Amino acid sequence: MKAVIMTTPGNPDVLTLTEIPIPQITTTTEILVKLKAAGINPIDTKLRQRGTFYPDAMPAILGCDGAGIVEKVGAEVKGFKPGDEVYFCAGGLGKAGTGNYGEYAVVEEKLVALKPTTLSFAEAAAAPLVLITVWEALFDRGRLEKGQTVLIHGGAGGVGHVAIQLAKLKGAQVSTTVGTTDKARLVRQLGADEPILYKQTDFVQAVLTWTQGEGVDLAFDTIGGQTFFDTCGAVKVYGDLVTILQPDQAIGDLKVARNRNLRLSLELMLTPALMGLEQAQRHQTGILEQCATLIDEGKLNIHLSQTFPLEEATNAHKALETGSTTGKIALLIA
């Protein structure tokens, strides 16, 4: 089969298209999926730059997100049959025999959900990692409730555009930072109540004004760096701040967070995969199942801004690394 592999860390040009054997089912609970599309995520570019979690298993196939058609199933697979259209977040972290930048993937049944029928394969492949990340961040970590206020950083991005929608579905009021007026229009279409042009406006002051000086109940940081520390001042006393990045205490300190008695949470949706936490993995698959229902009911949309053919994975990585894309990017697999 055709697959894009990396043999060494580096710039996007280390990704090369090659022919490798089709992966084979090796356990009774695995599924062979003929992939139609693969999602591109920031974790892909980070692993490409610095190396994978399994450096001794090179070469590696990247890509955590995939969507396609079930071709074969293991003897004990009960929930799927050949011909089913599925989507999932599995593999792509460098472990041998995994990854979705290719024509086929073998995935454990517990990680797979039926694809939303209203989405194309490309849209479906762009969705799993961000759906799980946002759900866990807002609901599992942040405990978001109806009537609360939330600040979402980077609302026009891959994670942010889903976070706006899920927060609104919960009944929250949403403010979000964006970089341009075009992105402000996009997030309003997604349901945001208060877009903040952070390049022109102090977002902390804007949030405090919006909340009559209290701050938001929950802030969701998708940017990291100084933004994480600045955000502490935009959260109400005893509020929640969830980040998907590792705070760098060489940049700032947590004095404001401590003074305001904030509850700080770190969200890494890859933890169940890296630690082999079966119950948590099944929880994540349940999130995909619930989100598929919301999507098919027209309550949740995936904004797919760009697609590239598999052989142009290098260009897809370059596009993502510009930092100016909206929504998600996916690879199309023939």
Key structural traits:
single chain, 334 residues, alpha/beta, Quinone Oxidoreductase, Chain A, domain 1, Rossmann fold, 7-stranded mixed β-sheet, 6-stranded parallel β-sheet, 11 helices, 26% strand
What can you see in these coordinates?
The structure is a single chain. The strands form 3 sheets. Strands 3, 4, 5, 6, 7, 14 and 15 form a 7-stranded mixed β-sheet that branches. The chain has a 6-stranded parallel β-sheet with strand order 10-9-8-11-12-13, sandwiched between helices. Helix 3 (128-141) packs across helix 4 (158-170). The mean pLDDT is 97. The protein has 2 domains: 2-127 and 270-332, Quinone Oxidoreductase, Chain A, domain 1 (Alpha-Beta Complex); 130-266, NAD(P)-binding Rossmann-like Domain (Rossmann fold, 3-Layer(aba) Sandwich). The protein has 334 residues and is an alpha/beta fold. The relative contact order is 0.15. Helix content is 31%, strand content 26%.
Task: Briefly characterize the structure.
The chain is α/β, with parallel strands linked by helices and 334 residues long. It has helices spanning 42-50, 121-125, 128-141, 158-170, 181-190, 203-210, 226-231, 255-259, 271-275, 278-296, 313-321, and strands at 2-6, 15-19, 30-40, 65-73, 85-89, 104-108, 112-114, 149-152, 173-178, 194-197, 216-221, 235-243, 263-266, 304-309, 328-332.
Write the layout of secondary structure elements.
Blueprint: E1 2-6, E2 15-19, E3 30-40, H1 42-50, E4 65-73, E5 85-89, E6 104-108, E7 112-114, H2 121-125, H3 128-141, E8 149-152, H4 158-170, E9 173-178, H5 181-190, E10 194-197, H6 203-210, E11 216-221, H7 226-231, E12 235-243, H8 255-259, E13 263-266, H9 271-275, H10 278-296, E14 304-309, H11 313-321, E15 328-332
Helix pairs in contact: 3-4, 3-10
